Amino acid sequence: MKFVYQLVLAIVLLPSLSLGQESTSMTPAETDSTNLPIDTISLLSKDHLMIVPFQPKMYMSDVDRDVGKTNNIDFYKVMGFFRLGLDNALVIRAKEEYEVITMHADVPDINRDLNYIYKSIGYDYELVPVKDEMADATKAKKIMNKFKKKEAPKTVSETKIDGGQVVSEGEMIERYMSTKVINPNMLSFLTEKYKTNLYLFINQLDIKNSVSDYRDYESDNFSRVIQAHYTLMDADGHKIAGGKTKEYFNSNTNDIRVIIKDHFTALADSMLDEITGTLLLLREAESTATEN
Is 171 helix (H, G, I), strand (E, B) or coil? Predict the structure, then answer.
């Protein structure tokens, strides 16, 4: 029954993506790349990107009761639809620029490998990278270093949970859930089997009420926020990018199809824009360094 629900959702919401082993590897021939910038084609077209969906235990939500009631489904199906919907949105967006392998598939061999991945990784809270305006050369240098081990600022006196996130009382420093590899053999295994050189881990999905005053609940008309935490690694386990993307929607929006179609696609666009931009910048910096 679970697979039937997933299949119906995939057909209704995202008809261009089918479930099954044949859909887990998508080549550039399936997309029209004529409208892509030439630098994107030359720098990214040979990248094979594996998308790893979040573990069910890494899902936190304040909306399941309302969404479940509206759609006549239980908690597990709500989570399952959101997990599938985010994966589908990411795959559709990513295949514009990469060859994509998705690990969310109803295929026994892939399911075994996905379980192997989950057993081989752990999670840590890290500081959300600060986005600022700077010259490309300086920015590229910062990107190369910003995912090194970070120490908590000394001025931070205490941390607390705020809206499901770890923040500092003194500076309100935002953090995201990041993936760490605890079994180095995993990446070499996946690279050999799937010919993948990039790994996009979806680490956590939060769907929370975003209210500043409890009285907001009385109106039954308040904001909610979706946050998708992610980490991008290369085949050697080097962290290339990471952070979280956010999308807001109204508490009166409880149709799961609308939430996925209107907001999960926006999350995917934002995440892939950040990842692709970082990769392009690094590749261009590497190319310049080689020429010099």
Answer: coil
DSSP string, 221-238: --EEEEEEEEEEEETT--
What are the tens digits of pLDDT across the range 182-214? Answer: 998 999 999 999 999 999 999 999 999 987 666
Start-to-end CA distance of the chain, whole Å, equals 59
Amino acid at 200: L
Closest by CA to 98, choosing from 285, 292, 268, is 268
Give the integer Cα–Cα distance in Å for 208 and 285.
38
State which H helix or E strand residue 25 sits in: strand 25-26
Domain ranges for the chain: 2-291
At 83, the amino acid letter reads R
Residue 7's closest CA among 80, 103, 90, 91? 80
Distance, CA of 128 to CA of 242 (rounded, Å):
8
Q: The pTM is what?
A: 0.74
* Radius of gyration of the chain, Cα coordinates, nearest whole angstrom: 20
Report the distance separating Cα 266 and Cα 288, nearest Å. Answer: 33
Parallel, antiparallel, or unpaired for β 48-52 and 99-102? parallel
Burial code (b: 16+ CB inside 10 Å, e: under 16) for 132-166 equals eeeeeeebbeebeebbeeeeeeeeeeeeeeeeebe
DSSP conformation letters of 73-138: --HHHHHHHHHHHHHHHHHHHHTTTSEEEES-SS-HHHHHHHHHHHHHEEEEEEEPPPP----HHH
